[in-house]
Structures
1.
Amino acid sequence: MIRQAIGSKWVVALGVVSVVALVGAYAALSHHQHQVNPDDRTIPTWSQLKDGFVKIVEVNARSEERWLVVDAKATGKRLFLGLLCGIGGAMLLGMMMGCLAPVEAVFHPPLALLAKLPPTAMLAVFFVLVGTDTNMYVAMIAFGVLPSLAQTVYLSVKDVPDEFLYKAYTLGASHLEVVWNVVFRQVLPKLIDAVRLQLGPAMVYLIAAEMVVGDVGFGYRIRLQSKLLNMDVVFPYLVILAVFGFTMDYALLKLQRKICPWYAYDK
Amino acid sequence: MTSEAYKDRMVLTIKGVGHWFGKHRVLHDVNLEIVRGEIVGVVGPSGCGKSTLFRAIVGTHPPRGGEIRVCSGEGVGALVRGPGRDRGIVYQQYSLFPFLTAQENVAFGLMVDESSIPYRLLMYPKWRKMRAQHMEQAAEFLERVDLGHAMRLYPGNMSGGMRQRVAVAQALIMKPEIILLDEPFGALDEATREELQCMLLNLYLENLDALRQNQKPPYTILLVTHELNEAIYVGDRVVGLSQYWDWKSEGFDACPGATVVYDRTAPVELPGGERKYEAYDRQRHEIRSTVFDPPAPVDRRKAQTFWEELADPRNRQGVLQ
């Protein structure tokens, strides 16, 4: 029946089966490909993947750097700064738009337009405005996530029932206390949900930009190694990206449960 | 007898209040004087402006015409210009902040009233001490509404009745001059509703005790309800707002808005006593035929006899003695 719950053991078992099926399908595909062409590098075998992984973690003879370390540092820094600016700006803007009608009137129309513009299409604009260093990536991620995050915050603020605000005022709260102690607390779990949803797009914008103009980073390395058909390097990078995204998402979910325990009951 | 005899005991004075939204007239010339310690049941047909009147009293939507004053001591009282902590409110829905536990909800008012954000940030050690006191007080109030066991529960984990009890405690802890209950028990089952009615009557009992000790009765309550029995049983006075009054005789071409058409005393009941709803038959019928479904437009002053009734000492019951 629709929405009928299943036992937790079943949930775990089915989850394990789906991962095993994915790994098994890859192994079968790789095996088949290597039977056709024993020198194939497009769908590497497990041993080729292991060699690829060793290649990215050990010091490279030519650059004398560990690829994974330098790429992770560069991509991580860009992603962290971009998300920080995007989330901070969206929080501020969304809260102000939801609480103050003049700010809403000024920012709502441009935000609705900008939210529809793919940031990767604006790459040239960022290129011109902020150069090609870290600032460009940060600007692109921030610009990419800010409009939709700000709209989420703004709509969540609008969703806060008037009764909560009136009640807070009758209990003696100031305007700032109503914003901080009532509106923000109510909006926080929805903001975390929205950030979880924006993690994927933020990584897409960054990897795409790194592929186009980067000289270091995950996107740069994937593009370079793809051109050389070194899929034994590309696949580990993809797995690391997936694990990183999953870990971030899980950490945010845990954070939400920790700081907003009421949200699960309220939903 | 007029309200003059109770002049020093007035807590809420509503004079000539009118309200409208564009061309839609909601309230017209509403006049009401509430004596400290009363529980007043406010009834009226849907759309007659009960909630609008409450919003005007709370101060979130000040009236377009007339004035509302809340008196905390002597004198005419302060004009209501916006929300303030001298008026508490309990709503039917959204009565509690969902992100706070029962205890934190009750302590919320103390927090925002006795400290500020800079104080809480910059004087953290002092704030922690103050917070502990607030939580202790909140626990006491929750015990009073029989919810000592539910202090750490979030509203999402509570039943409707528990939520409304916490909401009442949240309003009571601030010791407001008047507490407005906007259909607080509307969504509850009959048994829970009766429990909460008893809780209100216990507050009335505390008012009587305070009067006996020559103190100010601590709780004045305005209760909006759709249940006539509830208004009569819990209230010591029933006020009816209605749009079905004879506005033509006052020279209007169209209804200028709802107004008070019924204002009479109600029997004073004690908590735990037998509920004799059949004894309310006459008053229920009276309210229905004046406020809800009059056979013809009514003279709005005809059933506004509260102050005249008090001229007879036998009618001065409860806190009105």
Note: The two ends of chain A are 21 Å apart (CA to CA).
2.
Amino acid sequence: MRITLKTKIWFTVITIVLMFSFFSLFYFPAQQEKYLLNNYNNEVQNLANTISLGVRIALTEENFEGVQTAMSFVKDDPRLQFVSLLMTDTIWSSDHQRFSIKDSLLKTFPEKTESLISSESVIRKRSPFTTEMMSGAIELGLTTDQISIGKKEIRLTSMLVSGVFLVIGIIIGFWLARNISVPVLALRDAANKVGDGDLTQRVINDSGDEIGELATAFNKMVVDLGKAREELRHANLSLASTNDALHATVADLQAAQEQLVQAEKMASLGQLTAGIAHEINNPINFVTANIQPLKDDLDDILKIIGSYEKVVREKGMEKEFLEVEQFKQDAQIDFTMREVNDLLKGIEDGAMRTSEIVKGLRNFSRLDQNVFLKANLNESLESTLTLLHSSFKNRIQIVKDFGKIEEVECFPGKINQVFMNILSNAIQAIPGEGTVFIRTRQEGNLVKVSIKDTGAGMSEVVRKKIFDPFFTTKDVGKGTGLGLSISFGIIQKHHGEIEVFSNPGEGTEFVISLPVKQESEV
Amino acid sequence: MITVISHTKGAPSEMKMAELRSVMKGERQRWSDGTKVHIALMKTTTPAGQSACQKVYNMSGDRVKRFWLELSFAGNADPPTFCNTAAELESFVLQNPGAIGITDNFSGNDGIKITEIDGQKSF
């Protein structure tokens, strides 16, 4: 069973009040009556002793009037029932073996009182005396009426005191309940609310006692708790911020790792392409270098054949050369000559194309360089387009608007990588036929490259994430989500900027700004 | 030797011992002229008092006092006046008509007479 604090207080107060009432109603009156009776007995005894002393003195002085005077000492006392002068004689038996004490009444007041009779309403005291003349005693009897009155007064007083104490006890009970129970309950309610998370709770108690101190301590605790919670919240925020930074750092590290891997791959690819370009370049040089002499030689041969035909016609020697003429007709010499020219033209075009590809490969293969080199971005774009030619040649028109720009200090291989990424994305963003606009301009000490496609465009949500590592809108396996992230990092390394403008259905434009000169090498 | 003295009024000039004892024990409380008897004795601690107790009361001094205590508290008689000196006793007798006392040193005061007992002034 749960007993509340208020019940305990009331129980304590009521117990104390009842105990005090018991003592004040029973114990204290009994004690008082006992003391009263003792005092009264002592008073009566003292009076008897006083009279006895007076009588003894008077008898010694042989002053019988003095004896009367001594006995009259209490004559006017309203409590007096009797005062007697007794003479005590020792009565011996006839054989003097036994004796008895006999009291003879000499004088009593009032005259008709039977002095020796005692009752509960009379206190009787005896005070013996001895003189040379006689042995005797004074017996004094006083009424106990005053004791009864005193007892009644004591009981009445006790009842009044008990009643007053009961009232005071109730008042104290109320006071204690109000000053202890109520503040404690308020403290409990506030503590419960604080426990539920409400730290605005305060307990008002200006009593200055322990409960007041408890309320002050509680309020301080709540304030400290609020501060601690606020500090914890800040710490959590800081931790979250640190966590975010950590995530960003991890992402940066992953990106850097990917960059390194990509760079390594590109370096390997560069070395490979450089090797291939070098190996192809020599034979293709033979081809391109020999085409024109071959043409010239073929022209010479054709001229010689023409000269022969002219001589035959002029000399009328067709009959002798009939067999040769028959062979020419069988060989369709005219068609063959046109075909040879066409074949040579095709070889020449193929050689030139191959030479451009090789040039592009060589240009692209400069990835392993780690110092800034001056590069013409127009050429870089051309090289990249050459490499990508097969992916767009039949469906996408490339509109080049190359301005007159300065060479830019850069890592050409990495810039090529950026152009490769953006142009690849532009080509892939156009599902069917479309156009890619490439524009270069010099603006002050900046060279700006704009690559704009007529593709599907992108939403703002996507646009905000395209530079995030591993973000891709391509199908699984078709994109790593690292291309633009790496491109962003490369442009930043060049102290440049890369901007993107896009709306759904309106295509996408990337604008790359690169300083002509780098202030310091990265 | 002790002498019985008395006020000029009341007591006779001569008495028998038996009469004296009757008066001294309170048995006779008025004189023949109606005057109330007032008894004066020397204290029982004095030679005169002791002598009076022996010769008149034939009792010890304490016995005489007890006798008078009982008698007086019984209301049968007024107790004697016990005096410390003969002069005091003479003065009491002189001032109280009907007074009678016993002394061993009477000064011969004119206002006091000697009551002879059995014809003797002193005994």
Note: The longest strand of chain A covers residues 80-92.
